């Protein structure tokens, strides 16, 4: 691994920790959240954490950055950031939210870092070097539990509700259970550490997904090619799974598409 990539990885970890601590400090003194849609929100903490990350990335590396709140343009070296994934959970006072940071070089996800401050969970991955939770290696479930596969299904208003109903029907027809917890990034992290067997969403944005995708891949899981067809800037359908059910989730996406 190059020295430059080592430096970017260390900075991504530092920024995830700092950003998470900042969001925690700001949580109890926020004004009203801005509703971008009925299920998508933004707070001043989202904006402040994104400014922190963008400023450090620009100052240290001069790289491009795409953030959920302030956008940005892709480049050969680009950071893709969700300052608070799970903002609805964050503003309701629950613990399921995180800072998500990915670094992409020449179309490949090289670094993925997620930090969930309220539970002090730091997920890290580097391409070809494994996935870790608080410094310990993690891996997908491989269905060792022996129960029906559990799949988290993300939801957004960018696809009709009827298609989500079709996806849930297709999942159940293939012997899977489903759930939703409100953070795509942490849903992917749960697949990487074996707490769920799969994650499925008919459309998800890159800032919600890229760090978690690398975690799943490095933990031995399977994902579709999310970055195909300009997924970096326009988002894409996504599945991520332990290999034993990857075929089923690929079928579900096709059935609901």
At a glance:
This protein is of the alpha+beta class and 257 residues long.
Task: Please provide a written account of the structure.
By secondary structure, the chain is of the alpha+beta class. The chain has two domains: 135 residues, Fructose-1,6-Bisphosphatase, Chain A, domain 1 (2-Layer Sandwich); 107 residues, 3-Layer(aba) Sandwich (D-Maltodextrin-Binding Protein, domain 2). 38% of the residues lie in helices and 26% in strands. It is built from eight helices and 14 strands. Strands 3-4-5-6-7-8-9 form a seven-stranded mixed β-sheet, sandwiched between helices. Strands 11-10-12-14-13 form a five-stranded mixed β-sheet, sandwiched between helices. The protein has a two-stranded antiparallel sheet with strand order 1-2. A hairpin with a 2-residue loop joins strand 5 and strand 6. Helix 4 runs antiparallel to helix 8. The N and C termini lie far apart (39 Å).
Features:
single chain; 257 residues; alpha+beta; Fructose-1,6-Bisphosphatase, Chain A, domain 1; D-Maltodextrin-Binding Protein, domain 2; 2 domains; 7-stranded mixed beta sheet; 8 helices
Strand order of the largest sheet: 3-4-5-6-7-8-9
Give the proportion of residues in helices. 25-40%
Q: What is the number of helical segments per DSSP (H or I, 4+ residues)?
A: 8
Q: What fraction of the residues are assigned to beta strands by DSSP?
A: 25-35%
Q: Structural class of the secondary elements?
A: alpha+beta
Topology:
Blueprint (H helix, E strand, L loop, with lengths): L2 H24 L7 E2 L5 E2 L1 H18 L2 E4 L9 E9 L1 H5 L6 E8 L2 E9 L4 E6 L4 E3 L2 E2 L12 E4 L7 H13 L3 E3 L4 H9 L5 E7 L1 H13 L3 E2 L7 H4 L1 E6 L4 H11 L1
Parallel strand pairs: 3-4, 10-11, 10-12
Antiparallel strand pairs: 1-2, 4-5, 5-6, 6-7, 7-8, 8-9, 12-14, 13-14
